[in-house]
Amino acid sequence: MSRSMLAIVTGLLAVLLVAGVPSAQAAPCMSVTLTGTGGPPPFNDLAGPGTLVRYGDNANNCSAVVMQFDAGRGTLMRLAQLGLQASQLNAVFFTHMHSDHVEGFSDIAQMRWLFGAPATRKLDVVCSSEVKSFTGNFTVSCSKFVAHSDDAYQLAGETAQRISEAPRLNTDGPVALINVIEFKPNNDAQVVWTSGEVKVSAIRSNHIPGHASYRVDTPLGSVVIGGDASNDVMLPPRKTSTSDEVEKLAKGADIIVHSAVHPILAPEKGAGMPPVIYYRQSNATDLGAMAQRTGTKHLMLTHLGPSLGAATQGPWKIPGGPLTETDYIKSAQEGGFTGHIVVGTDLATVRLPQE
Ligand SMILES: [Zn+2]
């Protein structure tokens, strides 16, 4: 390289370096919003489980990278309340294939296809690879769920009808705009998705076959999405109801978002919830203990069983009547947690850095 060219390159580098320094206007931020905190049975206006994680800066409302974890009933309505449309999502991550965690997905796929998304821009859907059931007589498959998510509309002629009305649409339908990224969850965290400075890792956890928990790391902080994880030892006696793998993933994380069942539904309290259902969730007290051990600042309890104010959880009556926010806080604090507890309500948000 000649000396004059070297001078030009050096000058350009200096310009780039100056341009790269963030101004006060573009302070980076990260936000975690519960898009739905309800249980499987509908209650009042609660949406089904889901968590939105965003990273960006003040200039783009913290939304340069937009990630949705699970997509329960009504997810798109909650996103709309935040000013977000389906086309703005960069990726959807599934913790597991239980219908209450995925039933809002078809809505997302349809609306992305019909409105807004460029016909060639695909949505990443990140989830576990196909796995055999515990009994071995059926298979749990996220990729099949996604591949067939438009089947009813295809068979009903609705997809063809839309294409006939709007030639701009991708003629292969909504599923053609989805890119499934599968991974085999194991007992150590693995990176499953990245975008710029944002890194998402996953780890195996117990609940149903193929359940995975996620961690998002950004330059500003980190959040762990536990999903419905519980301990590998399915029934007491066991040291905790929480997952050892989630705990490993959550070491030093700023925020934990986790489904929580209140100990009032424990078999010995008499609500009548089958033990197998109660014990495959983490209870609020054990989650408080885990969050304390991992040194986490914010514990966001979500997908609450039972919902705040509900007299029943599905067919089961809550002993002593509906629970309040204080009941959940007390339960998590009984586990020894001294940090900030968010008892999940739809659209509850923790933003970093804190104002
Ligand atoms: Zn579940």
CATH level-two architecture: 4-Layer Sandwich
Portion in strands:
25-35%
Low-confidence stretches: 12-23
* CATH domain fold name: Metallo-beta-lactamase, Chain A
Helix vs. strand class: alpha/beta
Described by strand count, sense and barrel closure, the largest sheet is:
7 strands, mixed
- Fourth CATH level, the homologous superfamily: Ribonuclease Z/Hydroxyacylglutathione hydrolase-like
What count of domains describes the coordinates? 1
**SSE string, helix = H, strand = E?**
HEEEHEHHEEEHHHEEEEEHEHHEEEHEE
Overall mean confidence score, pLDDT: 93
Termini gap: 49 Å
Number of strands: 18
Rg on CA atoms, Å:
22 Å
Number of helices: 11
Task: Based on Cα principal axes, name the global outline.
Answer: globular
Q: What compounds sit in this structure? A: zinc ion
Helix content: 25-40%
CATH class: Alpha Beta
Strand order of the largest sheet: 8-5-4-3-2-1-18
Structural summary, described in words:
The chain is of the alpha/beta class and 355 residues long. It has a single domain, classed as Ribonuclease Z/Hydroxyacylglutathione hydrolase-like (Metallo-beta-lactamase, Chain A, 4-Layer Sandwich), CATH 3.60.15.10. The chain has 11 helices and 18 strands. The strands form 4 sheets. A 7-stranded mixed sheet has the order 8-5-4-3-2-1-18. A 7-stranded mixed sheet has the order 9-10-11-12-13-14-17. Strands 6-7 form a two-stranded antiparallel sheet. Strand 11 (212-218) and strand 12 form a beta hairpin. The model is unreliable at 12-23 (pLDDT under 50). The chain binds zinc ion. Zinc ion is lined by residues 96, 98, 101, 207, 228.
